[in-house]
Design a protein that fits this description.
Layout (H helix, E strand, L loop, with lengths): L4 E6 L2 E6 L10 H15 L6 E6 L4 E3 L7 H4 L3 H20 L4 E5 L2 E3 L1 H8 L2 E5 L3 E3 L2 H4 L5 H11 L1 H10 L3 E2 H7 L4 E3 L4 H14 L2 H16 L3 H16 L2 H11 L10
Parallel strand pairs: 2-3, 3-5, 4-6, 5-7, 6-8, 7-10
Antiparallel strand pairs: 1-2, 8-9
Helix pairs in contact: 1-3, 3-4, 6-7, 10-11
């Protein structure tokens, strides 16, 4: 598994690289398990302020599951359930990571690759990216979590077209329907990702984490009462933090704040 997933660190940004470029970064079963483990490792490191997921090579973010594994890994209902559980665990770990997760997308972003990108907080693609979820062409059904995330991003109508047709669509259409946040020329993709992650890393970690957690609760449909209680708890923690006091001092002293996450 180690060679299939690589970790890079640049300051406060951790990058997880899907490293099977010879097969368009198709997922093996162990990669899904490794993604979940990596998210937990990043969450335990207070120096990490933002996470990027990208594919190795020039041709793909990720092209979906490695179908060559299907007879072994999904050949029986029991094995298929185990496989789907590993996928759900990985996607849940990405969606629920305390740090924001950014998908840096070039080339093919298909099937499980598209599902992984959807689980991220932000998606930044280059103009050559191609998207699709051809589950219907493989006779498989997406999990409830993935369906909810897809419909939450693009709306039920667009989600139906994506899943019913299984077709590929380009970066401009992905931007138009809300699947991606930004589109950049290939030569500018890294710079745009660096700009966004730099902005995130410069902010107070507690406030960013609270925003992610609360938006997640909104997307899940928590009751107004539960949302109000959660917001109050996060608010008390933020206002009582050293980071809040540092922000006030920095404003008065006319300098950039130095946040520590405490």
């Amino acid at each position: 598994m180690a060679e299939d997933l690589l970790v890079e660190r640049r300051g406060a940004v951790a990058t997880l690289v899907l490293n099977r470029p010879e097969v368009h970064n198709a997922f093996r079963y162990d990669m899904w398990r490794g993604i979940a483990a990596a998210m937990r490792d990043f969450g335990a490191d207070p120096a990490v302020r933002a996470i990027v997921i990208r594919g190795a090579g020039e041709r793909a973010f990720a092209s979906g599951a490695d179908i060559a594994e299907f007879p072994e890994r999904r050949g029986t209902p029991e094995r298929a359930a185990e496989y789907h559980a590993a996928v759900a665990d990985a996607l849940g770990a990405v969606a629920e990571a305390e740090r924001p997760v950014i998908a840096m997308i070039h080339g093919y972003c298909i099937g499980g690759g598209c599902e992984l990108a959807i689980a991220c907080d932000l998606r930044i693609a280059d103009t050559r990216a191609r998207f699709g979820i051809p589950a219907a062409k493989l006779g498989v059904v997406l999990g409830v979590q993935e369906l909810r995330q897809l419909a939450g991003l693009v709306g039920v109508g667009a989600a139906k077209e994506i899943l019913y047709t299984g077709r590929l669509f380009d970066a401009d259409e992905a931007l138009r329907i809300g699947l991606v946040n930004r589109v950049a020329p290939p030569e500018d993709l890294q710079a745009v990702v660096d700009e966004v992650t730099g902005q995130i890393a410069a902010n107070a970690p507690l406030a960013v984490a609270a925003a992610k957690a609360l938006l997640g609760r909104v997307a899940r449909g928590d009751t107004p009462e539960d949302l109000a209680a959660a917001q109050a708890a996060f608010g008390r923690r933020a206002l009582g933090s050293e980071d809040h006091r540092e922000a006030v001092r920095a404003f008065l002293e006319k300098r950039p704040p130095r946040f520590t996450g405490r």
